[in-house]
C-alpha cells in the first residue's frame, strides 16, 4: 500500500527560500538539534501538589537552556519528543476540570509556540485523555470512530506534529502526518571558508510505543492500530529522501532494548537506529538523560550504545530526561559532497544539558513564560485547593522501599472498596471471590530529592489526592489464581538488588533501573508475604498467605489495579488484558477522592499502617543501604520501621540525598 503525505505538507517541501544559494562541494555547516521530552505539562517550576515553587523542573527553565544553545548554534532546530499534554495538575485542569474550548490553545503549546519549536512527536501519554481531546488540542481532524471529523479544526500548536506508526482503522491512514519536511535557512561555509545562505531540508518522522493499544485500550480499541518502528521507518524514510530531505531526524518516544525485535515492543529504538537513512534520533519515555558516561542503566550499556558520545549503532542520539530538567543538544557537523549533505559523526557532539548548574543552583527561568500562562496557573492553584477530607497522619513515599505503606494503603482501601461494591451491583458471577488491591509508590526519588509523595497531616485537598495517585488511570480489576498472584509479586520484587549476606562492604538495596511505579504491593491484614532479597529475582516471595493459610494455585482472587497494569504495562507475567474482569467507568484518582470524601477523616490505625509484606530476616556482614531525603528518620520510625537508620545526612553523590541503612535481621 502506498501512503500519501497530506497536501498541507507540500508547500513546506517544495517552496524555495528567497536568497538561498545552492551549496557547493566542500561546503560545511554546523546545526544544533535540540530536544525536550516527557515535559508532562510541567510548564512552570511549580509543584501543584505541594503548592510551592520547585526550581528543579519546568519548561520555563528549559527556555533559558534553549536560549543558551541558540547562542552557541545560530543554525538550530527545536523539537519535542512527546508525553507533553498530560502529567500535571495544570494538564488535568485543562482536560478534565475546566475543559479547553476549541479556540483555546493548551498552556504547554502556548509556551512552545513562543519558544519557536520547529516540530514535535507524540508520546503514549498523549492518548490518556482520549482521541477526541487529542484531536482538539493538536488542531487535527481524526477520522476515527467516536470523533466528529466534520467539527471545526480547533486551535493547536503552531508547529507540525508527526506520528508514523499509529493508524486509523477507518481509513487505514496514519492518524497524524507521518513525517514533515521543514525548509530551514542556515548559514554554511563554502570550500574557501566564505559564508553562504542555503536551504536545509530537514525531515522529521515520529513514533509512539505500539503498546499504547494495551495501555489505553479503553479509548483506542476498535479505533486505531499500530505498526512496529522498524517496518514503519523502512517504508517512509526512502519516501522522505525522495521528497528531498537532506537530513532525517527520528523523533521516537521510547527507550533502548536489544531483545529480539517485535513490532509491538515498547522500547524499539535500538533496532530503529539500524534502519538506513536516519541521521539523528531523539528518544524519551524512560525519564533519563542520555548520553551519561556514569549511567549503570542496562539500556545505556547495550552493545552498540556509546553512553559517552551519545551514539546508538553509530547514530547520534539524545534523551533529555523529563519535566524540563535537561535539554538535549546534538551538534551536527555537516559537509556537502556535491550531491547531498553528510553528517560527520567524528565531529558531531551529543549532550543532555542540565538545568542544575555545577554549584547545585538552577538556571534562572525565563520570566516571560510565567506571564504567558499566569491565568492558567492561578486557576489550577484554585482548583487543587478544593477540600476533600482530613488525615491524622503523614502519607509519604520516602521509605516506601523499606516498608512504609502510608502513601499506598489508602489507595488500596479505596480501590478494593470500589471493586467490592461494583461486583455486588453488576457482576454476581464474581461475588464469591475475595477482593484484593495492588498499588505502587509513584514517586520514589527518581527525579531528585524532592520527587516523593508527601502529604502532611491535616486537611486534604485535590492536590493531595493527585499526589497520592499521580496518573489519570482507569480502575480495572483482574481475576488471577494464587500462582499468578505470586508471579505478580515476584515481578514487583525486582525493585531490589540481590544482596550477598557475606559481603562486608555496603550493598545498595534498590535497583534504580526498576521503576518505582512497578513496585506493586498489597496492604491488607488478610494477606502476608516476605521478600527475600538474598535470592535472585523470581525466587524472592516466601510464605504468601491469605487469611492465615498458604496461597496455592487453586485460590482465586479479584485484584483491583489500573488499566495500565491490567493491560500489560510493566511487563508483569500473565497481565496482558486477558484477565480483566472489571473495566470500571471511573478513574483511580476519582475513586480515591470519593473514598476520602466518604470516610472524611483518615486515621493511621484504619487507613495507613496495614502492611502485608516484610523482608525475610537475614543477617548481613555489611550494611544494606538506600538513599532518601535527609533528616526524616522519625518519619520512618512513626511508620514502624525500627530497623532503619540514617548513616549520613549527605550521601556524597551531590544530589542532596542522605544515606540510610536497613537492618534485614530485624
UniProtKB/TrEMBL annotation:
SUPFAM superfamilies in UniProt: 5'-nucleotidase (syn. UDP-sugar hydrolase), C-terminal domain, Metallo-dependent phosphatases
Residues of the 5'-Nucleotidase C-terminal domain: 451-575
Assigned keywords, A-Z: Hydrolase, Nucleotide-binding, Signal
Residues annotated as signal peptide: 1-20
Domain of life of the source: Bacteria
Protein family: Belongs to the 5'-nucleotidase family.
Protein name, as recorded: Bifunctional 2',3'-cyclic-nucleotide 2'-phosphodiesterase/3'-nucleotidase
Amino acid at each position: 500500500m502506498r501512503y500519501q503525505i497530506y497536501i498541507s505538507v507540500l508547500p513546506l517541501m517544495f517552496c524555495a527560500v528567497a536568497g538561498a544559494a545552492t551549496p557547493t562541494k566542500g561546503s560545511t555547516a554546523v546545526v544544533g538539534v535540540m530536544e525536550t521530552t516527557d515535559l508532562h505539562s510541567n510548564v512552570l517550576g511549580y509543584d501543584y501538589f505541594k503548592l510551592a515553587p520547585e526550581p528543579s523542573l519546568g519548561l520555563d527553565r528549559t527556555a533559558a537552556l534553549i536560549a543558551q544553545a541558540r547562542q552557541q548554534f545560530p543554525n538550530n532546530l527545536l523539537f519535542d519528543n512527546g508525553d507533553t499534554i498530560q502529567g500535571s495538575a495544570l494538564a488535568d485542569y485543562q482536560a478534565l476540570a475546566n475543559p479547553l474550548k476549541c479556540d483555546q490553545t493548551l498552556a504547554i503549546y502556548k509556551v512552545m509556540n513562543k519558544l519557536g519549536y520547529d516540530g514535535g512527536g507524540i508520546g503514549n501519554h498523549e492518548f490518556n485523555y482520549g482521541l477526541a481531546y487529542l484531536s482538539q488540542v493538536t488542531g487535527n481532524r481524526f477520522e476515527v470512530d467516536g470523533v466528529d471529523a466534520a467539527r471545526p479544526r480547533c486551535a493547536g500548536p503552531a508547529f507540525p506534529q508527526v506520528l508514523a506508526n499509529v493508524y486509523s482503522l477507518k481509513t487505514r491512514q496514519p492518524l497524524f502526518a507521518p513525517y514533515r519536511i521543514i525548509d530551514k535557512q542556515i548559514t554554511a561555509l563554502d570550500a574557501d571558508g566564505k559564508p553562504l545562505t542555503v536551504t536545509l531540508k530537514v525531515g522529521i518522522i515520529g513514533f509512539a510505543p505500539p503498546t499504547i493499544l494495551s495501555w489505553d485500550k479503553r479509548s483506542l480499541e476498535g479505533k486505531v492500530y499500530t505498526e512496529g518502528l522498524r517496518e514503519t521507518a523502512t517504508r517512509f524514510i526512502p519516501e522522505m529522501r525522495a521528497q528531498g530531505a537532506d537530513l532525517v531526524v527520528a523523533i521516537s518516544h521510547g527507550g533502548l532494548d536489544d531483545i529480539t525485535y517485535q513490532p509491538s515492543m515498547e522500547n524499539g529504538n535500538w533496532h530503529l537506529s539500524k534502519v538506513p537513512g536516519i541521521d539523528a534520533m531523539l528518544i524519551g519515555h524512560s525519564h533519563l538523560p542520555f548520553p551519561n558516561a556514569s549511567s549503570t542503566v542496562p539500556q545505556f550499556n547495550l552493545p552498540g550504545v556509546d553512553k559517552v558520545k551519545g551514539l546508538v549503532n553509530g547514530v547520534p542520539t539524545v534523551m533529555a530526561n523529563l519535566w524540563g530538567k535537561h535539554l538535549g543538544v546534538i551538534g551536527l557537523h555537516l559537509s556537502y559532497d556535491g550531491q547531498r549533505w553528510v553528517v560527520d559523526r567524528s565531529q558531531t557532539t551529543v549532550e543532555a544539558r542540565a538545568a542544575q548548574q555545577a554549584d547545585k543552583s538552577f538556571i534562572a527561568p525565563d520570566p516571560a513564560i510565567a506571564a504567558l500562562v499566569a491565568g492558567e496557573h492561578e486557576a489550577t492553584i484554585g482548583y487543587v485547593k478544593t477540600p476533600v477530607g482530613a488525615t491524622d497522619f503523614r502519607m509519604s513515599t520516602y521509605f516506601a522501599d523499606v516498608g512504609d505503606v502510608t502513601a499506598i494503603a489508602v489507595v488500596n482501601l479505596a480501590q478494593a472498596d470500589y471493586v467490592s461494591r461494583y461486583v455486588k451491583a453488576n457482576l454476581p458471577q464474581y461475588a464469591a471471590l475475595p477482593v484484593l488491591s495492588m498499588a505502587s509508590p509513584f514517586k520514589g526519588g527518581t527525579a531528585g530529592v524532592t520527587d516523593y509523595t508527601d502529604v502532611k497531616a491535616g486537611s486534604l485537598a485535590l492536590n493531595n489526592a493527585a499526589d497520592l495517585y499521580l496518573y489519570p488511570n482507569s480502575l480495572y480489576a483482574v481475576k488471577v489464581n494464587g500462582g499468578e498472584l505470586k508471579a505478580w509479586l515476584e515481578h514487583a520484587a525486582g525493585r531490589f538488588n540481590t544482596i550477598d549476606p557475606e559481603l562486608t562492604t555496603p550493598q545498595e538495596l534498590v535497583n534504580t533501573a526498576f521503576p518505582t511505579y512497578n513496585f506493586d504491593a498489597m496492604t491488607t491484614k488478610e494477606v502476608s508475604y516476605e521478600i527475600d532479597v538474598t535470592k535472585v529475582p523470581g525466587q524472592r516471595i516466601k510464605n504468601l498467605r491469605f487469611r492465615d493459610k498458604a496461597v496455592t494455585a487453586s485460590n482465586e482472587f479479584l485484584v483491583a489495579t489500573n488499566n495500565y497494569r491490567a493491560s500489560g504495562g510493566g511487563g508483569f507475567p500473565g497481565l496482558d488484558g486477558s484477565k480483566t474482569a472489571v473495566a470500571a467507568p471511573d478513574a483511580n484518582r476519582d475513586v480515591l477522592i470519593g473514598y476520602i470524601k466518604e470516610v472524611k477523616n483518615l486515621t493511621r490505625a484504619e487507613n495507613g499502617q496495614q502492611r502485608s509484606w516484610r523482608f525475610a530476616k537475614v543477617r548481613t556482614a555489611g550494611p544494606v543501604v538506600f538513599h532518601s531525603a535527609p533528616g526524616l528518620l522519625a518519619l520512618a520510625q512513626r511508620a514502624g520501621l525500627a530497623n532503619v537508620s540514617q548513616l549520613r545526612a549527605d550521601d556524597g553523590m551531590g544530589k542532596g540525598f542522605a544515606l540510610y541503612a536497613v537492618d534485614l535481621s530485624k
